[in-house]
Amino acid sequence: MKFLRLAVAALSLIAIATVHAERFDDGLIKPYQAALKGKRIGFVPISMTIDLTRAWYAGMKQEADRLGYQLIVRDPNWKIDVAVQAADQLINEKPDVLVLHSDDLQAFNRQVAKAHAAGIRVIQIALKSPTSGDAFIGPDWYDVGRREALAMVNSCGKGSGKSGKVAIIHGPGVSAANRTILPGVEDTLAQHQDIKVVSRQSGDWDANKARSIAATLLKQNPELCGFIGLWEGEDIGIVNAVRQAGMIGKVAVITMGGGNREAGCNQITSDGYTAYVKWDVRGQIRDLNNAISILLQTQPKPGSAPFALYTPATTLTKDNLTPNSCWTLEEIGKTE
Amino acid sequence: VESRAAASVKPPVKHRRLRFDLSQENMVVLLAATLFIGFAIALPGFVALENLLALLQSVAVLGVLGIGMALVVIGRGIDLSSVAVMVVSVGWTFALFSSGTPLEGALLRGLALALAFGVINGLLVAYIEIPPIFATLAMSTVIAGIGQSTLVRSDMVYIDGDLKYLGVLASGRFLGLPTSVVALAALACIASLVLRWSRTGRYLYGMGDNPAAARLTGVPVRPITVLIYAISGLFAFAAGLLMATAVGNVNSRLADSMMVYDVILVVVIGGIGLSGGKGRIANVLAGTLLIGILLNGMTIMNLSFAVQNIIKSLVLLAAIVVDSLVNPRDEQTAQQGDI
After folding, report:
1. Is A268 an interface residue toward B (CB < 8 Å)?
2. What pTM did the predictor assign?
3. How close B148 comes to chain A (CA, Å)?
4. Which ipTM score applies to this complex?
5. I want to staple A237 with a disulfide (CB 3.0 to 4.6 A). Which of A194, A207, B176, B278 is the partner?
């Protein structure tokens, strides 16, 4: 009998323990976990060789591993037609959410509608196609351009005592940046009579070309006060032209980017970039993960309620730079 | 053997000197001079010494790649992989350097890689007898792929760290000239001397002029072919160093860009016939100078990128037309796969 009583006591203790081991249910945690677990997210970047895409991927992967959903990446290696095929292929495979990244405004326009028709929710990152997906995450490019122009006014405008002559080195004519960022630059500069744009050239997204153009312009316009570029990867060439001409500190170079330390902050520290308009990739990673989570939990009818999470832009200069202003891929996490 | 090979190559000197020589090289020099004078009159600031030095500096990379290409083309080959070799070998060098490898070690490895790619190109052409245009085109893709998948994972390799003596290449001056221009001149001199005075140089002309005859007369055609592609790899590495130190990063996307056509442009425009056996390094320099003047002038004129490209392409087209008129294909020795 004693044994039986002991056994009953032990069993009831175990029962109590299991009740206690069951976590507190706040009413959302279980549906939240269930909504995410086992889901499939498709990702088509421009190319997995870009620091931005590798950072986004690393950030999404960490969250996917933590919450038990799958991230499928298809790398088109800069080829738009391959990217469109990859998106089509993924749509056939019916993931729960499709994340699309493009440097072309029109590339995925039809794929968004196609995905919606197939019942797949679409997140677009960095650049939106005319047809809205379910979420957009990226900078307000016009505002990025405006900030660059204002930084230039700050360096070369009336108060600076300089010539106010500036050059714009932009992307190739068909690039999205010329339609999204450049108008922000031009409109803002147009409001400032003290700034005069003496040259507009395409650096073709190539630092070497940007370097030659900048070197020529520096020789051609001894009074030139500054350069505005539209991408850090190209504008490092401008910095080197200015450095080789011995004009560091005299000629302003203003650019923008996602906050990679080598590309951005290190060049501010070494006096290369006078100002750097940053839209922080770390914030975008969080926005991406949140958008995935929201879409999976709320399950809206695809395309019925598009929303945007515009990445706030900040203007970094030597004065407001902190050790945490930029990131490295190692910090964000391993990519494989 | 040597003298026969040489004799079959060298055009009779008298004949060349007697009439006014409207060779392509002279036309290019003439054209460059006309453009130069035109820009000097029309564009304020063009003729300033500093602008001219900047002009030379911007085309130094193209010039060095052009010399490497010229050597291959004279031997009746072509190296479409030179830009990929440049990008991957130098990209790897600086990726290693930025992650802590000592500068010398990184440079040696990059150099060895460029050399290895060149030797493979040469073996494919010389021993497996794949037409050079296909062998190097395929290799270009392979090299770019190897680079992207294993050696240089990122589009942009930033040079992070103190470059020591190598930094002199970027912004240093030698006798008042930018170091990159001096480097171009030095490499041009070496290549020129080798072509003109060395046995290998003479053989190369023989091989380009008539490969079958060269082989019959005892020229070691295959080993020299391998050697010349290897040298092309070395020039690509040198060009990459000039570019990377000047720009501050390596853009690995250049590996599959159209840049190799710019290299062919300076070679063809200078008058080195694509059918081989003809031309000197001076031709490359003339072609490089013409492109430099053209690009510099167009930048000063603030022409749009698209217009600049159209003008550049039309110049290339014109050069190829002139090339095919001045250097017609030799029906006796032409082979399938020749350009």
Report:
1. no
2. 0.81
3. 8
4. 0.73
5. A207
